Amino acid sequence: MVLHFWKAGRILSPLSETFGAAVLLSAESALILFTVIARLVRGHISVFEETLAAACLVSMCAYLINDHVLKVFFGVPNPINVLRGATHGFHFWMGSDNSGFPSGHMVLAGAFAGVFMRLYKASIWPLSALLLLAAGLLLVGGWHFLSDVIAGAYLGTSAGILGGAGWAAYSGRQSRG
Question: Is the per-residue pLDDT at 10 higher than 70?
Fold first, then answer.
């Protein structure tokens, strides 16, 4: 079964470059920069623009903690390394930022989505559907195991909801419908 997904992963491999972490982090950095420039030029930014900047910042922070702390701590190899003979399991304090558990992509996307889910209740279902689609692509593409994706989605979304709650408390705003 894993080899079946491996074949599908070769077809989906261009997505790994298009939606690689460096590309996503660069896009989030650009969004933050444009928001700051808009604030400087106009003297204010909209509530949505504030939320967008907060979502990008929370997402980037969660991703960095995941890749430089959690992946190193758990040390679970990714599917490619398992197919090459690595043992699929925890290898505490022996990981790297290329380890598979938790999925960095799901942490990145989940944290971004979590901020919006917390601040805009109407976004919960559409963003959940997008996260589910992303999880499916990560599995079918052979980039992660199910455990990686679940842990990444949980950690990311939790961080996003917490970040959104912090932003709501700081800005004195309630959730929007």
Answer: no
